Amino acid sequence: MKNFTAILLTSSFILLLQTFHGVKAGFNCTGSSFPTNSSYQKNRDSLFSTLSDKVTSNGGFYNASLDGVYVLAFCRRDYERQGCIDCVERSIRQIETSCSNRVDSFNCDSDDRDRVSCFVRTTNHSTYRLPEFGPATLDPSPVAIDTSTKNMTLFRQEWDAMVNRTLEAATVDTSTTVLKYYGVVRAEFTEFPNVYMMMQCTPDITSDECKKCLQESVTYFRTQFWGRQGGGICRPSCVFRWDLYAFYGAFANVTRVPAPPRAFIPRAHAISVTRLKGGIIAIFVVPIVINILVFIGLVKAYSRIRKSNNRINEQQSDSGGQSMLRFDFGMILIATDDFSSENKIGQGGFGSVYKGILPGGQEIAVKRLKKGSGQGDIEFKNEVLLLTRLQHRNLVKLLGFCNEGDEEILVYEFVPNSSLDHFIFDEEKRLLLTWNMRFRIIEGVARGLLYLHEDSQLRIIHRDLKASNVLLDADMNPKISDFGMARLFNMDQTRAVTRKVVGTLGYMAPEYVKHRRFSVKTDVYSFGVVLLEMITGRSNKNYFEALGLPAYAWKCWVAGEAASIIDHVLNRSSTNEIMRFIHIGLLCVQENVAKRPTMSLVIQWLGSETISIPLPTAAGFTTHLPVELHGTNASNQAEGGAGTSSLNKLSITELSPR
């Protein structure tokens, strides 16, 4: 009964979590129609062809016209460049599909996975510098606020105050940026720990026009969707949204508003004061009741604190804004059918991975750590705390955790296509990996590392990048996983020395194995090994007896036979481009740490055929294990050093899709 009650209490949080995933979009088609292959369609297609690049190069807002066709595009100010590009291109595809022959079209798109929002508008007349309140797309949350346990009158007052603060921030004409009308507020309500609100207008209208547009959006939400657990309204001149989770991007400049001062009343023992009738009773009884409850609450709180000293409390990221959910163990048991063997999708030295389904239908991956696995409290906390603060499309998303009793469990988004090693090292599945797909996977991994090294508000060294730690989603987009051994750097720190070496032999840079020195360049080395594996279609362990894949590729390069290592299943029409990637891979695995490129430089090289690339020097490799690693398990570590085992046996994950 106790577990059942806990499950019911957790369910409302689970429903909230369902809104974290998927693309929310709305479109509106108006006006007259135009014939297929008309000049209007050709001109619109011409404007669409460069629109995503134009909007990012112009600071997130762009309008253009061509012979009677007017197009306007807009990305929310906290966007990341690639996220904005993808969002605009999705909106274009929606218009081409749903408004294929309509003169006027408007599509507003929001992807919470990438924390980006945008819209695209097409008309046959200029809308620039004209406030446009319609058409509008509406996106109310399907989840209602539980009014039986919430004081909605108090909530309304706090919500209205938050609207005023956000509106004030959004309508200030700073005139310093292209997207000048913008405000994001995070507030603590009495009944809700975190409430988020965002308002933004296009920069071509005045401050008063912006305020009017946003006020109309707020009023419409109040009258039509009040009681919903969040929602948004998108108009051609302004965007309004609020929710109970951080939906904005990592670059948002968030104003934080603390909760209003109130007496501490433990929720489990709170008595609703509104039930006490009459002013005289309230005056005398309420203070007495509050004092008694405060005393009881402090005693119980002290007891709970003592019992939970060894557990991780819920963490909130100021940079990424993601709230971490502590899952109830009973909910995990229901989602995985008591960790049934049929739901088991992975097994490793750390424990097992299970597929689960939450009550709302969301699929999750549950990583259950076993006792004595070697992945202790430090690694568990490390992964939770780091992934709380990291948000990127090429990083696996940690949804929450559970640490009840002896259980330590991590809950991730479910990635259906397993890990990269199950494709690239499999004779049959490798046939599915065309060069274009391999190109996209390599570039995605590179972007994920760049985010860790430079673009996030933290500076992270992963330290265990390998093919088995790159997961593939339903569209074969790569997501870097397993942050148990990642290290947080100061922004001005360039390298560090560790007392023990952790990671996977064959992917670890020589200076790390031999001298325990690591930096962002050790991740670059690991990336170079993965890149070469993607090109050859063979695991580094196949070359381990001959000093490893980097040394073998370098030997072939020097002999002028680099093309011989290209996977035979790849189309030879792409040989020139593949040779450029081999060149880049060899630059990443150079023995000389200083000569290895940064990930930002790697991404430039990957995306351009015209940039001059320096010649590589000798590749680094490790011929012997360091003395402190020799012992009873040394032979096993060497044998599986390219992806089947790790020095600390933390990162072994054999996944298979279901």
List the helices and strands and how they pair.
Layout: H1 2-18, E1 23-33, H2 39-57, E2 61-66, E3 69-75, H3 81-98, E4 102-111, E5 116-123, E6 137-140, H4 152-170, E7 182-187, E8 195-201, H5 207-225, E9 231-234, E10 238-243, E11 254-257, H6 279-307, E12 325-326, H7 329-336, E13 344-348, E14 351-357, E15 363-369, H8 377-388, E16 398-402, E17 408-413, H9 421-424, H10 435-455, E18 459-461, E19 470-472, E20 478-480, E21 487-489, E22 495-497, H11 510-515, E23 517-519, H12 520-536, H13 549-558, H14 575-588, H15 599-607, H16 634-639, E24 654-655
Parallel strand pairs: 7-11, 12-16
Antiparallel strand pairs: 1-4, 2-3, 3-5, 4-5, 6-9, 7-8, 8-10, 9-10, 13-14, 13-24, 14-15, 15-17, 16-17, 18-21, 19-20, 22-23
Membrane topology: Single-pass membrane protein
Binding site for ATP: 367
Subcellular location: Membrane
Short note summarizing the structure:
With 658 residues, the protein is of the alpha+beta class. Helices cover 35% and strands 19% of the residues.
What does this structure look like?
Helices cover 35% and strands 19% of the residues. The chain folds into 5 domains: 20-128, 2-Layer Sandwich (Killer Toxin P4, Chain A); 152-257, 2-Layer Sandwich (Killer Toxin P4, Chain A); 267-307, no CATH class; 315-413, Phosphorylase Kinase, domain 1; 421-655, Transferase(Phosphotransferase) domain 1 (Transferase(Phosphotransferase), domain 1), CATH 1.10.510.10. The strands form 6 sheets. The protein has a 7-stranded mixed sheet with strand order 12-16-17-15-14-13-24, with helices on both faces. A 6-stranded mixed sheet has the order 6-9-10-8-7-11, covered by helices on one side. It is built from 16 helices and 24 strands. Helix 10 runs antiparallel to helix 12, helix 10 packs antiparallel against helix 15 and helix 12 (520-536) packs antiparallel against helix 14. The protein is globular, with a radius of gyration of 27 Å. The protein is an alpha+beta fold. Residues 1-24, 261-282, 301-323, 490-499 and 623-658 have low confidence and may be disordered.
